[in-house]
Design a protein that fits this description.
With 173 residues, the protein is α+β, with helices and mostly antiparallel strands. It is 59% helix and 21% strand.
Length: 173
């Protein structure tokens, strides 16, 4: 080890100092800076997308709740109308049933000149040829199983000799 020089020469020191800014340094520095730029841009873009996502989610939530509330109100209103219609239909009697009842209980010689239906009550005016026909008609109404009460409100005689009467009949349900 006789020829080993442990001292550095001036040239070797200059090379070492210039080695810090040489080509190898930039080879490592450029990718590092590029990675940091890409990372920062990705972070900024991610925050921007998160803001847009939050805005869209709140808009969707608001529109969804508005739509749901409107549909719910409309369905509830429609259901209420259907319930009202069902209750009205179930409590009302069919006018054809009254006419069938009248057809079955009217006797020959009697003619209905006025008919008014309200609830389960029939108001009618009946004309006949004589008092006997009127008496038979009233008896037929009273004998009917569907009638609850028969009330005669007026009895009249016309100029041609015909007789008429007004009656109120309460029918059973």
């Amino acid at each position: 080890m006789v020829n080993t020089n442990l001292f550095q020469t001036k040239e070797a020191g200059e090379k070492a100092a210039s080695g810090l800014l040489n080509k190898n340094f930039f080879i490592y520095l450029v990718p590092l800076v590029a990675v940091l730029i890409v990372y920062g841009a990705g972070k900024i873009w991610s925050q921007s997308l998160d803001g847009q996502k939050t805005g869209l989610e709140s808009g969707i939530e608001r529109e969804s709740s508005d739509l749901f509330n409107k549909d719910t109100e409309r369905v509830a209103d429609f259901q209420h109308r259907l319930d009202e219609i069902g209750a009205s239909i179930s409590t009302r009697r069919n006018p054809l049933d009254f006419l069938r009842w009248l057809e079955q209980n009217i006797i020959a010689g009697a003619a209905v000149s006025k008919l008014e239906l309200s609830g389960d009550n029939l108001k009618m005016e009946i004309a006949a040829d004589n008092y006997m026909t009127i008496a038979k008609q009233i008896l037929a109404f009273k004998k009917s199983e569907s009638s609850r009460d028969v009330r005669i409100s007026a009895l009249s005689r016309d100029s041609k000799g015909g007789v008429g009467f007004s009656a109120e009949i309460s029918l059973r349900k």
